[in-house]
Amino acid sequence: MTDEARAVVLLSGGLDSxxxxxxxxxxxxxxxxxxxxxxxxHRAELAAAARVAEALGAAAHKVxxxxxxxxxxxxxxxxxxxxKDRPLAEMSSGIPVTYVPARNTVFLAMALGWAETxxxxxxxxxxxxxxxxxxxxxxxxFIEAFEKTANAxxxxxxxxxxxxxxxxxxxxxxKSEIILYGRNLRVDFSLTHSCYDPDGQGVSCGRCDSCLxxxxxxxxxxxxxxxxxxxx
Length: 232
What we know:
The protein has 232 residues and is of the alpha/beta class. Helix 1 (15-26) crosses helix 7 (175-184) and helix 7 packs across helix 8. The chain contains eight helices and five strands. Strands 3-2-1-4-5 form a five-stranded parallel β-sheet, sandwiched between helices. It has one domain (6-221): Rossmann fold, CATH 3.40.50.
């Protein structure tokens, strides 16, 4: 890799994607942050993504708007209630209603298109297969399959210009390990947003799966979570 190497980093504004961006910057990439406004109910994450991209020195930050609400099938793109106060064991036992059909497939496809346009062959995504809510598109098998698709289905990949790589630095980390890694990279966690069901001011509920996993991660890491939560 040269000092001029570019990478497209999917950035939601959440804890994992923020640490992923910090990791890519630490590795010396010029990072092109990509945020997808997909019609999610938790709009506060879009503002968080903008804060993070600026704070971490992204070379560019692009927001692409698509409408996954038209497909539906998820509590994050419809009026379906977001589950609250679920035990950790229940979170990992099945795929919850907050799963958005094909979301990471769509996100990675958009990142791949931008990467090919930029002449970049590295795409970074903050998926995690340990402390997560059971989403199938966060698992290693999916990432490996998409990487093969990226190289088989692009002009750059088929003409030998380079080999696309899907970088997943956090995929086998516990949430506490992600937080500790982020601290070592000097991530300001107060800029991030994780909640699936914040209030109108963007304050996190503290009770959805994402909040509970985040809170547990900070407890296990023995670090105070700097964001605000509604009374729990």
